[in-house]
Write a structure and sequence with these properties.
heterodimer, A: about 325 residues, alpha/beta, 2 domains, two-stranded antiparallel sheet, globular, B: about 400 residues, mainly alpha, 5 domains, two-stranded antiparallel ribbon, about 40% helix, about 0% strand, elongated
């Protein structure tokens, strides 16, 4: 199952891809959809400048609530939100931004270039939801943001410094945080220590959902969360998409109580049937929905090649 | 690199510029052994602000005696604004000129019209005035500017693209695909293609949009071909237009739908056919899509049975008559009940797939049943459960 695809709904709105050479009479109300800007890669496709010009000329930007930028605003050559920031005075109602909505055919996730998100957050103090896909050059301001409620970083490898900054950032309104940490091979490698402020529950008093996902070190993360203070305030926790094994499952079972959670997402895992049954039996009768779908088998070739284990994350390259 | 072989002997800067293939006083130079391209002649005239005939004389004096010419007379004047028309599209990396001996491709006219923000007819007039010609099959082009023309005539986006030309026939499916991409009505797209001189395998009709499911609401974003390819859509369109279902199918096929496979629609629908064919069982779009691999979902059959009051077997039989067959592994229960419907709503496996422990546990959690109970019920409904595990009898507890 692919985890990386064009977003269909965003910020509670249906996504509407701004069509090439759009006509104003064919367009929906500016506030009724999440606007997706994306141009084809070929010389005969409408260029991004023309597309952006048409979009900003035809659509009442003041009413736009959600904006999604795809190719070529973001691709393997890098990414830029300058165009959005440049029109901050017109995007007065902007609540949600998705940067880098590209599928595999457009660019491997590991190649999608990002940037420092500080200027965007500073330009839009009313922003509530931010999703970014990619990894290269990503950074996040430790100073944080007053109103951001939801942040998701989809990556095959979040730069560890960026993850560290997110973990340390002051985000008093943040309710959902999802980090696809990724692997060192593709720029990741975040350590548990770098996530310490997040695990301690510092700086994010409103947090109700935490996803520390897509990590080769999922067992270590599970062990850390087994005693992390932040867990007590969560309603849902995701350790999905990673290389979780029975070691991590055992850590969750032997750690602090998780029965206050509404959902524990462990999908895409390498747990044994016995561990799956133990986790289910320990939590489901207490009302915790445990997602154990996506049971995966270790890659035998990796084992034959002498690697420590054959477990792999869901999204890497 | 030397410029000796073809360098003009003249020291006049203008002479040297028109002798340069790039219209500057430097190599590469025109080859006196080859005809001077007509576009070069016109661009030289624009550059020197003189008549093309004067440039012909000047080139002859420089040793370039053979110059391409149009079928008719040379234009008396060429403006600098005309030179943009003379570059053949798709050859931007060659220093080439639009061929005056061949008809102007539709792409040249349409793309230039988009770039210049004018009507295709205006581009055609200007090129014709410059001596270029259009094929006999080309009729008058549209007098209105529409930037979408570029995509309407492009049939393949990759690389330099594939483009429809004057008089060429587009596939019916192309109209649907491009209307979907442009988020415009297929009928409008078809009419514009015809206006651009592209032939269609059918004659566009205003009813076509209704047959294809266009509601007229801005931002519909329908995938027209996909939306129309369902028996429910056909019956609904027949009802809305007063046509026979078979006639709707025939017209949709002409419009590029139903590319493969048979279409099962009754001549005289039963009263609740539209209900059982609608995803929400409300007799309205979205319509149930035919799945020829895993069949109609058993959950839909049971829901439809509850809504219509028919039994599951009778409902399955009617749906099969309408093109939606249950997979042969499915075992419909004698009576439809909400518990089964709720359970099946948590199963995203088909009757071809194995239902594994992970799926049983998920369904048990979402329905508040025990894994053992879920496993037993799914087995009774025809699912395969290949994992050799002892399913717990403990029930999940729903929250809230």
């Amino acid at each position: 199952m692919s985890h990386v695809h064009h977003v269909q709904r965003f910020h509670g709105l249906p996504v509407y891809t701004f069509p090439p050479y759009a006509h104003p009479e064919d367009l929906p109300d500016a506030g009724a959809v999440a606007w997706r800007l994306s141009c084809g890669p070929y010389p005969t496709d409408e260029g991004s400048e023309a597309c952006w010009g048409r979009f900003t000329g035809m659509v009442e930007l003041e009413k736009v609530r959600a904006l999604i930028l795809g190719h070529p605003w973001y691709d393997s050559f890098g990414g830029s939100d300058d165009a959005v920031i440049g029109l901050r005075d017109r995007f007065t109602g902007l609540e949600a931004v998705f940067l880098g909505d590209l599928e595999y055919e457009e660019s491997m996730i590991s190649l999608i270039g990002l940037h420092d998100l500080g200027p965007l957050l500073e330009a839009f103090p009313g922003l509530q939801e931010l999703v970014v896909r990619g990894g290269d050059n990503l950074d996040f301001p430790v100073a944080g943001h007053r109103n951001l409620r939801s942040l998701r970083v989809e990556s095959g490898g979040i730069p560890p410094e960026a993850a560290e900054h997110i973990a340390a950032a002051d985000l008093p309104s943040l309710e959902r945080l999802e980090l696809w940490l990724g692997t060192e091979e593709y720029g990741g490698g975040t350590t548990v220590e770098q996530l310490a402020p997040l695990l301690a529950g510092d700086g994010k008093p409103a947090l109700r959902h935490l996803g520390l996902q897509n990590s080769p070190d999922q067992d270590e993360l599970a062990a850390a969360l087994a005693s992390a203070p932040v867990v007590a305030r969560l309603r849902s926790l995701s350790l999905s998409m990673g290389a979780l094994s029975d070691t991590g499952g055992e850590a969750l079972l032997s750690g602090q109580p998780l029965t206050h959670l509404e959902e524990l997402d462990l999908s895409h895992h390498f747990l044994s049937h016995a561990m799956m049954l133990r986790l289910w039996s320990a939590l489901e009768p207490s009302g915790v929905r445990v997602n154990l779908t996506g049971k995966s088998e270790e890659d035998e070739q990796d084992l034959e090649d002498g690697m420590e284990h054959g477990r792999y994350i869901a999204v890497a390259e | 690199m030397t410029d000796a072989p073809h360098a003009p002997v003249s020291g006049d800067p203008d002479d040297r510029r028109i002798a340069g293939r790039l219209l500057r006083d430097s190599p590469p130079w025109l080859d006196p052994g080859k005809p001077v391209p007509y576009g070069h002649l016109l661009a030289s005239a624009a550059l020197l602000r003189c008549a093309p005939a004067a440039v012909v004389s000047r080139l002859a004096a420089l040793g370039y005696h053979e110059v391409e010419r149009p079928e008719g007379p040379l234009p008396e004047a060429v403006g600098p604004e005309d030179t943009v028309l003379l570059r053949p599209l798709g050859k931007e990396y060659d220093f080439d000129w639009l061929d005056v001996t061949a008809p102007v491709p539709l792409r040249q006219t349409v793309v230039l019209a988009e770039q210049l923000g004018v009507a295709p007819a205006e581009v055609a007039r200007r090129l014709t005035a410059l001596g270029y010609h259009y094929p006999a099959v080309a009729g008058p082009l549209p007098e209105t500017h529409d930037a979408r023309d570029v995509l309407l005539i492009r049939t393949d986006a990759k690389g330099d693209g594939e483009w429809l030309d004057h008089g060429e026939q587009a596939r019916a499916r192309h109209v649907l695909d491009i209307a979907t991409r442009l988020k415009c009505g297929p009928h409008a797209a078809a009419l514009r293609l015809v206006a651009l001189g592209v032939r269609l395998p059918y004659t566009p009709h205003p009813d076509d949009d209704r047959l294809l499911g266009l509601t007229g609401r801005p931002g519909d974003g329908l995938d027209f071909a996909r939306a129309a390819e369902s028996p429910g859509h056909v019956l609904d369109a027949a009802r809305a237009t007063g046509r026979r279902p078979a006639d709707v199918v025939a017209r949709l096929a002409e419009l590029g739908c139903w590319g493969t496979g048979e279409v099962l629609v009754p001549d005289v629908p039963e009263p609740d056919d539209l209900v059982v064919l609608s995803e929400r069982l409300d007799g309205r779009a979205p319509w149930l899509r035919v799945n020829g691999v895993v069949g109609v979902a058993l959950r839909h059959v049971l829901r439809a049975a509850l809504v219509t009051g028919r039994g599951p077997a009778a409902t399955a039989e009617r749906l099969a008559a309408l093109g939606h067959r249950l997979h042969k592994n499915a075992i419909p229960p004698a009576v439809a009940d909400e518990e089964d419907i709720r359970l099946l709503g948590t199963v995203d496996r088909s009757f071809l797939d194995g239902v594994h422990l992970e799926h049983v546990l998920r369904s048990a959690g979402l329905t508040g049943r025990s894994p053992a109970g879920v496993a037993a019920r799914l087995t009774a409904l025809g699912y395969r459960l290949p994992d050799e595990v002892v399913y717990p009898e403990t029930r999940a507890v729903p929250r809230g």
